[in-house]
Structures are given as C-alpha cells and as structure tokens.
Amino acid sequence: MQYYLFCDTETGGLNPDQPILQIGWQVVASCGSVVKRGDYFFWPDWDKVDEKALAVNGLYPHVLESIITLQNLDGFVDFDNALSRLVADMHDYKAPFVAYNSPYDVSMIRGNAKCRDDFDAALFEFGEIDVMDPASQFLKWDKWLKRTVAYNKITGHAPPDNAHTAHADIDMTREIFFKLQAVNAI
After folding, report:
1. Which of 8, 19, 114, 150 lies at 20 to 30 Å from 140 by C-alpha?
2. Region 20-40: what's the mean pLDDT?
C-alpha cells in the first residue's frame, strides 16, 4: 500500500530564519485513512516573531504557553527531536512529503533544523509533493491560490473554523490532494 506524509508548519513569519511554532503531520494510506499523527509546539525567540504571523495562526505567547505546558506532560520535545520523528515516519512508511506550498514548509524546516541532513535525505529518497501548484492549475488560478479557497472550490465545503492550525490545514490539504488524485490532476 502507498502512504503519504502530509505536513504543515505554523510559523512566526515568512522567512526561513523565523521560528516554527508548530509542526504537524499525518501519515495517510492511499485509501485516505490516517494511520499516524505527529503534532509539536515550540517556544520561540519572540524577537524573531512577526505579529502578522500570530494574527493568522493565533499562537500568541499565552496560547502557546498553555499548549506547551500540556504537551510537556509527556516530556519535552525540541524541534530537532520532532523532525527526527517525522523523518522516521517517512522511512517507516516509505512516504513522500506532501504539503500545500511544500517549498515554503521545506524551507522553513531547513531554516529551523540544526541537523537537516536526514530530512534532506528522506526528501531525496521518498520525494516531495506540492499540492498548491496542481490545485492552481486545476482551477486555472494564479500561482498563489490560498488553501482555504482551493479547499472550498475543489471539495465544495467551507474551510473549518480552526483553519491555520497545522492539523486543520493538513486535513484540508489531504482532501484537496485526494480529490485531485481522483481526477488525475496530481
């Protein structure tokens, strides 16, 4: 069976030197079933965070602090440890990395990882699939088609209220991907 690793990051800005606040992923079977999830939040250097990014993802300091406090009940996980778990899932399931605007997520991950060689090797071995470009082509839209618009136009559903959290965005990307795959558009 083919598997895919759908990933999304919530960041403190648009530049690779700005921090990742959340990384989430889902390993999904070709039938659409989610078989594994990863979801981690990180406390950033707030001097590097752009307020505009927080307005989009809602991960303000007080919100992030309470999430991280709950997350750390199971033990502290830093970004490189979370990335190692993502790479292990790519290897375990031989899954390509799938994201909406994957070049952005890949550049943010590379910019935040102290040791990214394993991630780059997994991308090379299993591949990378961008969902935004095929969605834009399918809808005959300009290159920067927002995920929420693509989701609405391709699935016929309104975006979820919690859009711009990693797993809500992954859920939308997954649905867009499988709809496009069904019509051989990806």
Report:
1. 8
2. 96
pLDDT attached to residue 75: 64
pLDDT at 164: 85
Between CA 111 and CA 116 the distance in angstroms is: 9
Query: Distance (Å, rounded) from C-alpha 135 to C-alpha 96?
Result: 18
Q: Tell me how far apart the alpha carbons of residues 85 and 53 are, in angstroms, rounded to a whole number.
A: 26
The domain limits of the chain are 3-132
Question: What's this model's pTM, rounded to 2 decimal places?
Answer: 0.94
**Start-end of H helices in the chain:** 51-57, 61-71, 79-93, 102-112, 117-126, 132-138, 147-155, 166-182
Distance between CA atoms of residues 75 and 22, nearest Å: 16
Backbone angles phi, psi at 76, to 5 degrees: -65, 135
Looking at 3.30.420.10, 1.10.150.130, 3.10.350.10, 2.160.10.10, the CATH number of the domain 3-132 comes to: 3.30.420.10
Q: What's the whole-number mean pLDDT along residues 78-98?
A: 96
Looking at residue 116, what is its pLDDT? Answer: 79
Write out the two tokens for 82: 């979370």
Residue 149: Cβ-neighbour burial (10 angstroms; 0-12, 13-18, 19+)? middle
